[in-house]
Design brief:
alpha+beta; 181 residues; Arc Repressor Mutant, subunit A; 5 helices
């Protein structure tokens, strides 16, 4: 388990050791990416106090930059999000949503089990947003919620970014579309 606050040094509770962290500027605000034991464990909004320049964090930064530039549609990074088996199933279902597409909370519940509300809880607890694309999950009646960055404006920006770069990738079978308001 990790503890993270705005502008933190991330420390693993179980071992008490420093977790390497690298921050970057993005169109949706500053992000800090952390790794532990050779895998990405978190993406947090804000700029980290300490900066570590590891090969994995550099790779994550470059992939995030490429994603924001529309040059990358799938991340190729080792991930180790900490969460219950249920949350792991939800996050796996999120990773299966194609770039530029959306799914409803109900769609994800049908894949991972649980209810739309429990999917929303797992989305809100996602420690690796953007890379695990919780922004691609919408309500059956609208955009749904989002806890990252500035909330719904950030979710709308992420969806709009994927729509603008991925318009040619989105086909008729890619599921429900979010109404960007």
């Amino acid at each position: 388990m990790t503890i993270a606050a705005r502008h933190p040094e991330i420390i693993t509770i179980s071992t008490g050791h420093h977790v390497p962290l690298l921050s970057l500027h993005t169109p949706v605000g500053d992000l800090s990416v952390a790794e532990d034991d050779g895998a990405i464990v978190s993406v947090e909004w804000g700029w980290g106090r300490d900066q570590d320049d590891t090969p994995l964090l550099r790779r994550a930064r470059e992939q995030l930059y490429a994603w924001f530039d529309g040059a990358l549609t799938e991340f190729d990074l080792p991930l180790a999000p900490e969460g219950s088996p249920y949350r792991q199933r939800v996050w796996a279902a999120l990773r299966a949503i194609p770039y530029g597409a959306t799914r409803t909370y109900l769609d994800i519940a049908r894949v991972a089990g649980g209810s739309p509300r429990s999917v929303g809880g797992a989305n809100g607890a996602n420690p690796i947003p953007i890379i695990i694309p919780c922004h691609r999950v919408v309500a059956t009646t609208g955009i749904g919620g989002f806890s990252g960055g500035e909330g719904l404006p950030t979710k709308r920006a992420l969806l709009a970014l994927e729509r603008s770069f991925g318009a040619s990738l989105i086909g008729p079978d890619d599921g429900p579309r979010a109404t960007l308001i």
